[in-house]
Design goal:
Two copies of one chain form a homodimer.
Chain A: E1 2-8, H1 12-30, E2 35-39, H2 43-49, H3 55-63, E3 66-71, H4 84-94, E4 99-105, H5 118-121, E5 125-131, E6 141-143, E7 147-155, H6 156-171, E8 176-181, H7 187-200, E9 207-212, H8 213-222, E10 229-232, H9 234-244, E11 255-259, E12 265-269, H10 286-300, H11 303-318, H12 332-341
Helix pairs in contact in A: 1-10, 1-11, 1-12, 6-7, 8-9, 10-11, 11-12
The structure holds 3-isopropylmalic acid (IPM) (2 copies).
One 3-isopropylmalic acid sits between chains B (85, 88-89, 238) and A (184-185, 214).
Binding site for Mg(2+) (chains A, B): 214, 238, 242
Domain Isopropylmalate dehydrogenase-like (chains A, B): 2-339
Subunit structure (chains A, B): Homodimer.
């Protein structure tokens, strides 16, 4: 199995190393054979090759069985003509990574980090499914001196395939899909709702509810345990999935997966590159490590391996081994070592 | 002074009556002379005249000194060809109501309603300024059988005037503007950020910070006391202003104002028409009553009158007079009477 790693910028290289250490430690237990190929990506690739997604990186990614991405971006690129995010958007499009999956869960040991009252986050366990290669992200963008325009396009098929993913996931979970749109204003949302209703006919065992994005942005926080699978379009998904990190109260423990129809999937933490603490050895590697677990489960069907890692993370947190962002004093390497010891 | 009232649907008529009772009670104290002209709007207007914004309503609204709107919509219109919201969107456009203002505050007596921990909402006092007549709401909408398109347009001038409003407000408050966009993806957001920087040059006494909408959706909840004036475009403002109601933990105490360049302003609760409790006499009239206070202050410069109402609401809540949605048993008329008694 060939895994391509894109360490990227900021704390990216450190947390990627931690993720790979954990993978190396779990692999023998589950007899998982793999090779790792590291490639330039993001700001690091701009510096090295003048482009955030160099040809060689793209070729390797396309040929991979799975891709691990750590984090990209940094203040030095903020006003540059070429930016790290362009590499990420291009990679999503080139690989057809249309289905972004973000599980939202609360770790027992980290409950106190949530800004929400304990009774609100009790029983929270949902997944945000975000369409990732369509909509206003990939429509025409026109910037003139005195005006600007973005175009939001969706086809029936683009909507259908992501809604199907949501229903398939719901079938294996709580059997409820919440489809989010702005149907009282947008044409794309009117189509979205039609398609969701059409797809629902093939899943009589799953409940479909519709929600307007403004109202959902509220209910996701006030009634988070009402949700099972939330599915939405690209821009709404960007906003709502970041918002969902309010529930655990930290970005530091949230992995994500992005899937295509038949190519390799990509796994990455939802947090950014944290340039302010890069190189200090104090970054929290858990999102990255849990992304490795997601990869084992979703790309390689290694459920046991994923479970080992997730249990080890849980145990380590319960033991009180916490990095600075989680309120503790453990270094990145101490945290990683503790997780490996608990495997 | 001529006030046009649009009671609308559901609980609209009941809460409008309550708002007008309070206005009638405060008017003699501040020697405020006014007339009220009630007009059909929303679903009620569809039923009465076949259109959510009848010509007569629009003509009266244009000739008014201020407009009070209660609430529109109901399940019976959800699948109809003509819907109440279309009247609202048309009214905003016809009156040029480009600046929507939603203050976010926590009432001492209602702190316990917030899903957030007390220390998080301590000191929260910000305003969301939403652009209301541009962007993807008013661009071309195309719905075909197999595809759909929405167009998001902004001109320099449209952005400039709303950003100026935000800076003017910040000058009279905490002297900080947070401008929200998705500048790493959208052309309209790139222009938005350029204009915000341009306008900021005329306000050296006000701090401008930029935030990406995904990140802001998180920080608005985790660090709400960091904000003073949040300004953003139409669609982001729709999502973020609803999301901000998470902080007080109830939609029932949040008023809003919408201003144009030189025509009448419109004041309305941010909550909906609550068809499930319409006519039961148990609706919470506070958002409506506080909208009346906003009208007195912002359209008629009657600061004392606004203050009387706001103090009376505060006092009534502290006395424990609470409607059902706030956890109490007071009816709409009991709540209204208590507020009037406290004026
Ligand atoms: C970096 C940015 C382009 C990206 C997005 O908006 O999709 C990020 O916010 C994300 O959610 O992965
Ligand atoms: C009813 C709807 C069109 C409206 C909007 O999206 O602007 C509402 O959500 C609001 O925020 O006033």
């Amino acid at each position: 199995k060939k895994i391509v790693t894109l360490a990227g910028d900021g704390i990216g290289p450190e947390i990627m190393a931690a993720g790979l250490e954990v993978l190396a430690a779990v692999a023998p237990k589950i007899k998982f054979d793999y090779t790792v190929e590291a490639k330039h990506f993001g700001g690091a690739a701009i510096d090295a090759a003048g482009h955030p997604l160099p040809e060689k990186t793209l070729t390797a990614a396309k040929a991979a069985d799975a891709i691990l991405l750590a984090a990209i971006g940094g203040p030095q690129y903020n006003d540059a003509a070429i930016r790290p995010e362009q590499g990420l958007l291009a990679l999503r499009q080139e690989l057809g990574l249309f289905a972004n999956i973000r599980p939202v869960q609360i770790f027992e040991a980290l409950k106190h980090l949530s800004p929400l009252k304990p009774e609100i986050i009790e029983g929270v366990d949902f997944v945000v499914v975000r369409e990732l290669t369509g909509g206003i992200y990939f429509g025409e963008h026109t910037l003139k001196e005195r005006s600007a325009r973005d175009v939001n396009d969706y086809s029936y098929e683009e909507i259908e395939r992501i809604i199907k993913i949501a229903f398939e996931m719901a079938r294996g979970r709580g059997k409820k899909v919440t489809s989010v749109d702005k149907q009282n204003v947008l044409a794309t949302s009117k189509l979205w709702r039609i398609v969701a209703d059409d797809v629902a006919k093939s899943y009589p065992d799953v409940i479909l509810e519709h929600a307007l994005v403004d109202s959902l942005a509220m209910k996701m926080i006030t009634n988070p345990s009402d949700f099972d699978v939330i599915v939405t379009e690209n821009l709404f998904g960007d906003i709502l999935s970041d918002e969902s990190s309010v529930l655990p109260g930290t970005l530091g423990v949230m992995p994500s997966a992005s899937h295509s129809d038949n190519g390799p999937s990509l796994y990455e933490p939802i947090h950014g590159s944290a340039p302010d603490i890069a190189g200090l050895g104090i970054a929290n590697p858990i999102s990255m490590i849990l992304s490795v677990a997601m990869m084992l489960r979703e790309s390689f069907n290694e459920t046991a391996g994923a479970q080992y890692i997730e249990n080890a993370v849980n145990k380590t947190l319960l033991e009180g081994v916490l990095t600075k962002d989680l309120g503790g004093t453990a270094s990145l390497s101490e945290m990683t070592a503790a997780i490996i010891a608990n495997l």
